[in-house]
């Protein structure tokens, strides 16, 4: 019998968090190999299992999968979270790509230069409430079903509440103008597998605090001010 | 008969170029509506044609597809450029994502400050030679086939060729240590649909110049 998938990453959310959400929602138990220092990361690189010397990496079904999107798409296809046909798949892709644009901004926010933190947070919240959330609110309203796409749970339905929760950590009232998003988030949270993942003691990771920011910066040799450096609207 | 796909983007490479490559490789004719002014972008946004107010956008099969990767996947899937099963598809996906990470450096390059541009060419070359090319060189060497995955043309081959040619424009000898990639470049370039795309008069766009950069700033900067 195949072993459980094993996730290789640092001990924090980063790009692996979406993968944790998807596996948890699909009811798939997984293990984690979490490194805490540059040395441990380099040891993993030297082991030769990281195709581009980067994480996330997920060992699953005899493969060492890398590249967040490739991993997520594999899991979505494998666990029947990718729609019933090519058109539904396209819409799921579009919705998750939009969410990734927003979640990337949120993810890099802790690396802001101190003087730019306030401005960056305002930028994120403005983008969230004017460019992204209205799209999903409208999608839910127009589609009129329990899910974003088609008539069954998909990857997009898992990713949306994940990003809403992250945004709320930046500003608790950020969903104030979006009643359908609020209702959707609450409803997805009642799915038993998701509910379990949201309880304390699950493998869900907390947001970065100042101490863990320093750890992450040391492991990956990030610099402050990387935030928004290459995030164009082009 | 189905209408041709219609691409909405400025008249230059940017993020739409990969889409042009894949459509061309698949032998699909397409139309283009070039964005030249802020007013045109506004019109598309106000008309609710752009889901996230952004381009690329491709009108195809009754949908207005946005988000580059969604567009690339849809076309690849439709035209059998995504492997024969989930395992092949996932390999193709990993190769494409890595290549797109490298291509991203090329796409952003013209928009860097002039002082940073030369440094970035060095960075691109290093990333290509140390991180990405060795992966694909090994894949080709190990299985000895013409294509990266499953012995047939896929999205991975097309995007890799696009990226190699774009890098060669800036660093002509970038493939000097990679004999299998050199051979790959020649073989994939000679596939009839791709060969046609590489000839003058095709919809392939020239390297970005100052006019393109200025147009993009005019359209997208507030």
From TrEMBL, chain A:
EC number: 2.5.1.18
Family: Belongs to the GST superfamily. Alpha family.
Name this polypeptide is given: Glutathione S-transferase
Residue span(s) of domain GST C-terminal: 85-208
Single GO BP term: xenobiotic metabolic process
Record's keyword terms, sorted: Transferase
Source organism of the structure: Odobenus rosmarus divergens
Ranges of residues in domain GST N-terminal: 3-83
Keyword Transferase annotated: yes
Superkingdom: Eukaryota
Residues in coiled coil: none
UniProtKB/TrEMBL annotation, chain B:
Keyword match Transferase: yes
A Pfam family reported for this protein in Swiss-Prot or TrEMBL: GST_N
InterPro entries: Glutathione-S-Trfase_C-like, Glutathione-S-Trfase_C_sf, Glutathione_S-Trfase, Glutathione_S-Trfase_N, GST_alpha, GST_C, GST_superfamily, Thioredoxin-like_sf
Keyword annotations from UniProtKB, A to Z: Transferase
Record-level Gene Ontology MF annotations: glutathione transferase activity
Domain of life: Eukaryota
Enzyme Commission identifier(s): 2.5.1.18
Enzyme class at the top of the EC tree: transferase
Repressor recorded as keyword: no
Residues of the GST C-terminal domain: 85-208
UniProt domain GST N-terminal: residue ranges: 3-83
Classification via PROSITE patterns: GST_CTER, GST_NTER
CDD domains xref list: GST_C_Alpha
GO biological process: glutathione metabolic process; xenobiotic metabolic process
Family: Belongs to the GST superfamily. Alpha family.
Name under which the protein is recorded: glutathione transferase
Organism this protein belongs to: Enhydra lutris kenyoni (northern sea otter)
Lineage: Eukaryota, Metazoa, Chordata, Craniata, Vertebrata
Gene name of this polypeptide: LOC111152273
